[in-house]
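Quick one before lunch.
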Amino acid sequence: MAQPARVCADAYLQIPGISSSNARHCALYLTFDNMNKPAHTGHDIHPLIQARWSPRAFDPRPIDAGQALSLFEAARWSASGGNNQPWAFVVFPADDSEARRQIEDALTGNNREWAPRAPLLVLAVAMPHPRVGKVGPYSYYDLGQSVAQLVVQATALGLFAHQMAGFEADKARQAAGLPDDCEPMVVIAIGHYGDYNDLPEALRERELAPRVRKPLSEFVFQGRWGRPIMLATASATTR
Ligand SMILES: Cc1cc2nc3c(=O)[nH]c(=O)nc-3n(C[C@H](O)[C@H](O)[C@H](O)COP(=O)(O)O)c2cc1C
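Model of the flavin mononucleotide complex:
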């Protein structure tokens, strides 16, 4: 296992613009074990946000029930427009139930190859806005934000969460028995990290690939669309 992790660390070190401290940080993580792929940030961020990533190599060992409840407690305390809390979660533990079989069957593409190993599959559902009586833009916005909190809480517990839009909505509706006015948005695979050697080759490559993002200059503007943010130059970390 050491060899691919070393290659991956070297790849991080070659990324143009990576700060030397972050490159060292990433390299250290990746040299010691392969389940960490911290973000190579240009500016300091909270270690939990830096550590979160979406793996595919899950270990089938079950999650502690208390930890699972903490995930939903974190989602519960998310902000939402008018405190409407337009989210719901349907949990499918890895048992032999028909519902778990159905949600696995709803997955599409590559997701079918790796996600069924996760001990928990969770269907995240957007709920109708109470005033308009149907799912609206802020249902999506608020659900996404609550899922973000759930995912960061998973990271804090040493767990991993991988969201998937790759699933058939009708089959997921059927598996969960969703009311007609709700919308299934993502299936989230949650669990402990496993072994990337258990993945098919193509997925193993993606598992070990460096994580990339657009630079801040492409999506943060000052006062007017397209105008570079001046704060970025004032507080940039030394590279
Ligand atoms: C709404 C949404 C849908 C996604 N759908 C899939 C998916 O169907 N299959 C998959 O492997 N990853 C999926 N992902 C994971 C993204 O590919 C991943 O978050 C992105 O590549 C960034 O990688 P990171 O999470 O490791 O930083 C999805 C993520 C989000 C937020």
